[in-house]
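User: Quick sanity check before I run a bigger batch. Here is a single chain. Can you write out its predicted 3D structure?
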Amino acid sequence: MWIESLITCIARKKNSNCLQFTSSGPLTVPPNTSNTPTLLYMHVPFCEELCPYCSFNRVVFQEGLARAYFDALRKEIILYKELGYRFNALYVGGGTPTVLMDELARTIELIQETYGVSEISVETNPNHLFAQNIGILKGLGVNRLSVGVQSFDDNILKATERYHKYGSGEETAERLRFTQGAFDTLNVDMIFNFPMQTMAVLENDLTTLMDLGVDQVTYYPLMVSSSTQNIMNKKLGIVDYERGGMLYQKIVEMLTPIYQTTTAWCFSRNKAMIDEYVVNFEEYAGLGSGSIGYLNGRVYANTFDIRDYIRMLKENNILPVTAKRDFSIKERLSYDFLMKLFGLSLDLEALQKKNGVNAYRYLWPEISFFQLVGGLKKQGNMLYLTPKGQYYWVLMMREFFIGVNNFRDFCRGETGIS
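Assistant: Done. Predicted structure follows.
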């Protein structure tokens, strides 16, 4: 247990340092100068209601504001074309991207016309799984639909304020059963380590997933940002992070006989796109209010103010970037070390070619530590996660996303970033 605590502590400190952005200097996106496979991430921040544990940039749906937002989003899409970008895939996240299907359809059609992406993944919620929506998404060329379920347990759904919005666990399961087979990949997003989630509750959720036969399951650990900690404690109880490993092992034990481990927390029947696109794509552009992108060693964030986002694009015709950080070579390598190994393996030779430096020379302290604690094995130029290492990477990615959520909270609460 001390190793897990140490990994958590170190990851939290490193993430805090790396997520220090600046609002000085040129706040823009560098022009495209390479053929690096790049993903377009598009954020739709509107939800019918807001879940108490979620720290993504989201607001309560207002139709007029949402339509103006989509119009601005389409302008941002064209600006990236003018900078020379070509995208191989599209990931639409939220919020709830399917909250206005006609606007979403127009926007995806523009992306198809402009970039001809071959992979499209869209997030949605269980209450949007009906025939008309499914038909529209299929017609747009969506390969993968990712449904936020979190749990089939009614007590957890009520505590997380999802029951009255999306129905019971049984009703959600029926909607998934209706949708299964409509797309190349139906992914179900789940969460483990809710305070009231006993081992029996977790096993029931896993049994339901296997009975449904969904194509892919992403099982996130509960990730609570600093600003939502008190709310979560009151509504759900205090999170016991020490039992996370036990719950994770049960997930692996029950899913791996049927599913392949795609990342440390994603399980797939076949090769498919995943929620953590940062694993499969070297770079990604972040479009939409509150999006974060990573291009040519620069991490950047769009404004979190939706009305400001609309104004910057519609009135000034400029990218709505309000903060950035240019990674050093060590930070680039550390980022790749985290993300690639989350996908279970890392090619040190490929990393060396990409960055023009001896990757092992920069990363040997991290590599040696995880070899020492049994999390990594090295075969030639390849690094592989061990079963023990998979949970270590779950911990590190949990802390990474908590750090990102804290950064989002900071951006929402500040008029500027120092």
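The radius of gyration is 21 Å.

User: Great, the batch can go ahead then.
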